[in-house]
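lol so apparently i was supposed to do this last week
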Amino acid sequence: MDSRTGKAVRLGRILRPETGRAVVVAASHGVMAGPPSGLKTRNEIETVFAQLRAADGVMVSPGMIPLVENTFIGRDRPGFVLHLDWKNHARAIYTPGKDGRSEGVLAQLAEIGDVAACGIDAVMTYMYLGQKDTALEQAEIARNTRIVRECERHGIAVIIEPRSALEGIDPDALSAKVMSMYCRIAADIGADLVKALWPGSVEDFAAVTSTCYTPVLLAGGAGGEDPHSTLQLAADAMQAGASGVMFGRRIFRAQRPAGVLRALNAVVHEKQSVEQALRFLEQ
Ligand SMILES: O=C(CO)COP(=O)(O)O
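anyway here it is w/ 1,3-dihydroxyacetonephosphate bound
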């Protein structure tokens, strides 16, 4: 039995075979930052998740699984993505300005064998690079490599999001040069998908996607109040050669997540313009 088949089956539940693209919803923010606005209560979680049927994937934390498992059971359901690691991001929230950055201290939240048994299609892991302490950087490479090799054995897909430990400190942390290097490292370690932050322009993101042979999904960042800017960001990412988006707050904080999702599908899969897609927000 070849576990590559398992990986192809699972990856095919996320990247739509017809387009090779994906719109994934990230909903696991609580594990890093506490209750996220839009998903604070059980009621909010249930209300938002009931609107995510049209997503190609939805990312949750391990503890959320019993609460939302129905999202993933049945035909034509979103791919099941697990946020595999905690990172020391909460410090950045409760001590803003006091060296409150997430310099890449991470802990793995589940074993890959258990992930496979749970029916999960893909795991997402951060990969922090650029720490002053080279032991931390080395540990991050070793941790991500271990996850990728274990997922290969179990036929689970892996999404790596490379991040700079110098975000917010070094203005170059999100530059095309640094992002291209980090995304390519993620691909060369063996990620199936790379999730990347927006480096600031279509041109810079094109430099990232064109040098990363693994499909790149754009991460969203804060937002959600203005669906037009969400659609424009997705359109810019597609123009730059992305294979889709992996947005969280821009979807679950929206007034009607289902409408934003439908409109994002129009931009990402149907190549519709932002103006054309805007009509889906009303439907
Ligand atoms: O995947 C994500 C967080 O892990 C993306 O979330 P945001 O779009 O809210 O930044």
